[in-house]
Each structure stands twice: as structure tokens, then as C-alpha cells.
């Protein structure tokens, strides 16, 4: 049952693609908890049409934005401030795409132009969004910014490719910008390191189904669902988490603390 934890709060949700998306679930929960939101994704994603349906259901405008373009980001922020009637209280970055992984390039044969593009889409976009918000004074004091990440930033998952470095960079940006934003504006910045989740993007990683089962058995609580991640994001956007910043927060059923689980021997 909703508790109106976000009543009166305003935010931007980057990256919802379809109903399998974690960002989609987060958008739904934010509105359930009383927030007003703006939905955004790249123009190519908007052409799929699914996000428009979500926007209509949540009474949220859908604004196209190439998150690698500062011009697009600044336009999005201006339109969001105008529509919502003031600065943001929360922002979600749920953006990630690896060209080398998508095109099945081996890690040891990566194409560097694609790698640079991957970093720009998946990590540098986070810095661009925060810097644009900062310059435009588009976040309220004690606001909350979240990025979604994965434990491959700390450990080796061979088929995750250059996305591992992207997530490492994303987490570093959260710490670095979190210091500056917190000191100047009392805005907090964190990342949530989520369990492997059955999303459209995740299913594109080689061997994902097998790894999903492995992680589920390794984790004492099992894999965290996208719905559970949405609950956690609501908490992080709420005033209940106002003293948490510059943290990488594991939301993975205990996977990150495990060495071996005997349940794996029965796989």
C-alpha cells in the first residue's frame, strides 16, 4: 500500500524502455508514492511507442533526450522545470548500452571507437546530467540523484565486457560529484548495484539466463526483483535517506557478500 513517501516531490526518470525495465518500475512506484515525474529516453527508444503508453497512464510527459548531448539534456531540464513548476527533488539515471557487447566483439578484440561511445552513453552521460542540473540550479536542496549499476564494476564477469568499466566510471562520478553537490547544495548522489534482472537490455548479454540462475542460488535471499529495486529507489528519493550520499548500495539479496553457497553444488 502506498505511503505517499514522495508526496509533493518532482523528478526525472531517464531510461525506461518497456515494462521489463527497472526504470519503468521505478517510475510507477514514484507516482504511486505521490510524485510528479517526467519520463525521458533517447529518440530511437521513443519510436517503439511503449514509453508514451506509460506516460499517458502516469500522467507524465515524455520528452526525447539524447543523454550524450548536453544541448538535449539542458533542453530537457528546462522543459521539466517548466512542466513541474520548479526544480527537481530526484533524478534517476538508468542508461546503459555497449556497442562491443551488442555486436558480439570479444573483450580482447574491442573496437575503441565503440568503447568510447559506450562510456559516453553509459557513464559520462551521468556526469553530463548532473553538471547540467548543477549549472541550472535545477535540483532542490536535499534532493536525491541515483544511478543504476552492477557488481561487475568490482568483480570480473567476462561476458559483461566494457560495461564493467562503464559501471566503475559511473560509480566514481557518483562519489566525486556527490562531494561537490553535497557541499554546495545538500544534494545527495548514490548508485544502486542491482541483482541481475530480466530486462530487455540484460537479456542481450551472452549467457545471461545461466548467470541469472547462478546468482539466484548464490544469494541467500535470491535475486532482488525490479519491483524490489523500485521500492529501494523510492526510499532513496524520500526524506528518509537524506543523510546517505556518495555510496554504492548493494541491492542483490546478499550476493555481494558471498564466497560460496552450498546450494550451488546442486545446480
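-> sequence recovered:
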Amino acid at each position: 500500500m502506498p505511503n505517499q513517501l514522495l508526496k509533493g516531490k518532482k523528478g526525472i526518470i531517464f531510461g525506461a524502455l518497456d515494462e521489463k525495465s527497472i526504470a519503468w518500475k521505478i517510475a510507477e512506484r514514484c507516482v504511486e508514492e505521490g510524485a510528479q515525474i517526467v519520463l525521458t529516453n533517447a529518440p530511437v527508444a521513443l519510436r517503439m511507442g511503449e514509453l508514451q503508453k506509460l506516460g499517458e497512464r502516469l500522467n507524465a510527459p515524455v520528452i526525447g533526450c539524447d543523454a550524450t548531448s548536453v544541448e538535449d539534456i539542458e533542453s530537457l531540464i528546462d522543459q521539466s522545470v517548466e512542466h513541474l513548476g520548479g526544480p527537481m527533488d530526484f533524478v534517476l539515471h538508468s542508461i546503459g548500452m555497449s556497442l562491443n557487447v551488442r555486436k558480439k566483439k570479444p573483450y580482447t578484440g574491442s573496437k575503441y571507437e565503440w568503447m568510447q561511445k559506450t562510456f559516453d552513453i553509459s557513464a559520462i552521460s551521468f556526469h553530463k546530467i548532473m553538471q547540467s542540473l548543477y549549472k541550472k540550479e535545477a535540483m532542490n536542496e536535499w534532493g536525491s540523484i541515483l544511478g543504476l549499476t552492477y557488481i561487475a564494476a568490482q568483480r570480473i564477469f567476462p561476458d559483461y565486457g566494457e560495461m564493467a568499466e562503464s559501471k566503475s566510471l559511473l560509480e566514481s562520478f557518483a562519489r566525486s560529484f556527490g562531494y561537490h553537490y553535497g557541499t554546495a547544495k545538500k544534494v545527495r548522489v548514490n548508485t544502486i548495484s542491482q541483482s541481475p534482472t530480466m530486462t530487455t537490455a540484460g537479456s542481450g548479454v551472452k549467457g545471461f539466463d545461466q548467470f541469472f540462475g547462478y546468482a539466484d542460488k548464490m544469494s541467500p535471499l535470491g535475486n532482488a526483483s525490479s519491483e524490489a529495486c523500485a521500492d529501494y529507489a523510492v526510499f532513496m528519493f524520500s526524506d528518509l535517506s537524506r543523510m546517505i550520499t556518495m555510496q554504492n548500495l548493494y541491492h542483490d539479496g546478499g550476493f555481494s557478500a558471498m564466497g560460496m553457497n552450498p546450494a550451488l553444488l546442486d545446480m
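The radius of gyration is 18 Å.
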